[in-house]
Amino acid sequence: MFRFESADYLYLLILIPILVLVRLYGLRKRKGQLKKFGDPELLKSLMPDVSQPRRELKFWLLMTALALVIVMLARPQMGTKISQEQRKGIEVVLALDISNSMKAEDVQPSRLARSKMMIENLVDNFTNDRVGLVVFAGDAFVQLPITSDYVSAKMFLQSIDPSLIASQGTNLAEAIDLSSRSFTQQDKVGRAIIVITDGEDHEGGAVEAAKKAKKKGMRVFVLGVGSPKGTPVPDGNGGYMKDNTGQEVMSALNEEMCKSVAEAGGGAYIHVENNNMAQKQLENEITKLQKGDIMNVVYSEYDEQFQAVAILLLLVLVIETVVLESKNPLLRKIKLFK
Questions:
Q1: Any alpha helices (H) in 47-162, and if so which ranges?
Q2: From the centroid of its chain, how far is CA 98?
Q3: Euclidean distance between the first and final Cα of the chain, in Å?
Q4: What 3-state class would DSSP assign to 173?
Q5: Peptide bond just before 329 cis, omega within 30 deg
Q6: pLDDT digits (tens, 9 = 90+) for 121-153
Q7: Which are the contacts of 18, defined by CB distance < 8 A and separation ≥ 6?
Q8: Which residues contact 110 (CB under 8 A, 6 or more apart)?
Q9: Rounded CA gap, 313 and 266, in Å?
Q10: Can you give the pTM of this predicted structure?
Q11: Which of 76, 90, 177, 216 could cross-link 190 (Cys pair, CB 3.0–4.6 Å)?
Q12: DSSP conformational letter for 235
């Protein structure tokens, strides 16, 4: 598996076509200036050592070198190890609320950012467990199928944003139902659904969905993010979201809803005020779940590949240095660049 650790640098490749256009413009302008001096064929005979193909070759070698430098900055990596192991652990599906109300900043830097930090810390502490990721607003969908690849889990986590779901709202029932269908069919493995939300349930049915999950042998935990006092929701343009009457939309953590869902799901409700404390409380709860044999765990270790790119870069620069713009008098009879 091949990837770039810092893929944003690849946008710099746009510089190459820009430089090519500048080069073409310069050649066209130079050609026009030479015509003012006289007949092109006569000028060519007066400059027998000038080699336009050599100049073109040196230019494209420099463009290749620039592209290789950009690729090096992007840190190319390749999976060098895929392993299958048998472990004892549990299965966890994290259901993250990405509705617009999660943009509220009553916790810093925002409810959604705090939630993502919480999930990343949880994943970092998983060792022998499988983890899946569900995101929801008015609808719900699986962002990451259940896996033991924690690197991929954190990669998918970074791309989560409210814009992923066009249908706004907070459909907790759909999120819990989808999460309960996201586990494997393996027997004798503890399963937990961890819902991270501000509890603004606009669809209903969340308590019933939690009860169904409990009957299937799953426990539903709810992490409440935000303040019960309420706060306006940023609109992303420096202001705050407004309703149809022009009033600012206020969003508050609905702790009663969160507690009801957690109780119905046989889990626990935890108010996230301090990430570390909330994480410890949650870990204490999920350690009570039965650990089973987790089979076919596949993971990849990535190895840096910039060394190979650096060798190619060095080779290109050496060739560019060796190739002269003018013809070598000693090798004039050899027509390599004809």
A1: 52-73, 111-125, 150-158
A2: 16
A3: 42
A4: helix
A5: no
A6: 889 888 888 899 999 988 899 999 998 888 888
A7: none
A8: 102, 103, 104, 234
A9: 60
A10: 0.61
A11: 90
A12: -
